[in-house]
Amino acid sequence: MDIQNKRISDGEFARLRQEVLTQWPTGKEVNLEEAAAYHKAMPASRNFSQKLLAAKAAGKTLVQPRAGVPVIEEQIKLMQYLEEQGEADLLPATIDSYTRQNRYEEAENGIAESLRLGRAMLNGFPAVNHGVKNCRRVVESVQVPMQVRHGTPDARLLTEITYAGGFTSYEGGGVSYNLPYCKNIPMERTIRDWQYVDRLTGLYEEVGVSINREPYGPLTGTLVPPCISHAAAIIEALLAAEQGVKNITVGYGQCGNLVQDVAAIRTLQELTDAYLQQYGYGDVAVTTVLHQWMGGFPADEAKAFGVIAFGSLAAALSKATKVITKTPHEAVGIPTMEANAEGLRCTKQMVNMLSDQSFQDERLEEEKEIIRQETRSIVDKCFELGSGDIAVGVCRGVEAGVLDVPFAPCRANAGLMLPCRDNEGAVRILNPGNLPFSRELKEFHRAKIEERATAEKRKASFQMVIDDVYAIGKGRLVGRPR
């Protein structure tokens, strides 16, 4: 499949759209002109872009959970509870797994079974099956903005339904919703399908409706070095901007070392702004999101709250525009709405207490400079591999291992790079694989990991990686040998 980072023409988009809207009967409910009018009539309090920009200007960190259930009435009940009892500033509809794989018939059966049994038989909200009118019921049931969160390689119909349904933010992208989620789908295909999503977002923008787009920051979620998630986010931001997106939130998954996490959020904002400016998209507004720890959690709820609070600390001190929260039930499965609200309130308390505080550390500037050099080396090499076209370059970069996501299931991903923690818990790179790092950067990582190996009286090895993956669930950050 031939791709390029070029805005989809009106004629080509119209042809594709005709196909997309016939994938499920609810596609017939979509009318862009009517949907735009619906958005314009909504109160400003429900617009994601506006709320993010106001928070950024005020130096405030907004709080948002993950949540989604299959039945409309239960989704409304959940959203209202998280708004009122959880004090959420922003709300999600987390989409179910069948919808993520475009298996709408099975999602329909899941809705029916949920109604019959009186309990959730899907792990999220099947927005395509519910259609535009029911999505609007959910959006209108709360006063805060709502976002679609999912994990869908081909999200085109889902985008059409939920945009027309009044959602004002949409997560995902052709890189971040392929490598961490898919096994056999070519990168070229997901890039192309997400260009459709971004072009649709651009069309809404052109008629006066701003919809926020958010690349999925954490990727595989565990021990992802900042430069990897930064590179993916920046590339997806550039791809989105070319299609006309004007409001983008770039994300990062908490790694656990406070200095590194603060440096990561601050450089993510800086580097995304710089690349957008460099390539002619200086009118795009950029905000940031920190995802609380995405790896294993302690089963003990009190200990889980410690992990949640620590993520809240990193979000607040880095001045992330928003933070995606976790719950004390992370180790055991889908949380109750009460547990979800508790995670929100814990986070809200922390970010409110820290809102007037700043964070400086003598190591912060060094960490920021390392992240800058690493990220630029990856993004610039992708541009080089694509002969200046980042859509081509990222596909070639993934194939070459220039952008290499740890623990990703996708066969296109090289899987050569291995991360582990250094002696202070920062995520470093044990094996760089084919990352295009300078000799100095490689030596920096080698020295940091060797320092830990010396302290632990063992050789730097894959065992460190294993130990670090499980460490937080066992009550530590660094996976020390017993």
Structure explained in plain terms:
50% of the residues lie in helices and 9% in strands. With 482 residues, it is of the alpha/beta class. The strands form three sheets. It has a four-stranded parallel sheet with strand order 1-8-7-6. The chain has a four-stranded parallel sheet with strand order 2-3-4-5. α9 packs across α10 and α10 packs parallel to α11. The chain starts with 9 loop residues before the first helix and ends in an 11-residue tail after the last helix.
**Which quaternary structure do these chains form?**
single chain
End-to-end C-alpha gap: 51 Å
Q: How many individual β-strands?
A: 10
pLDDT averaged over residues: 97
**Helical percentage:** 40-55%
- Shape from CA axes? globular
How many DSSP H or I helices?
A: 17
* Rg over CA atoms: 21 Å
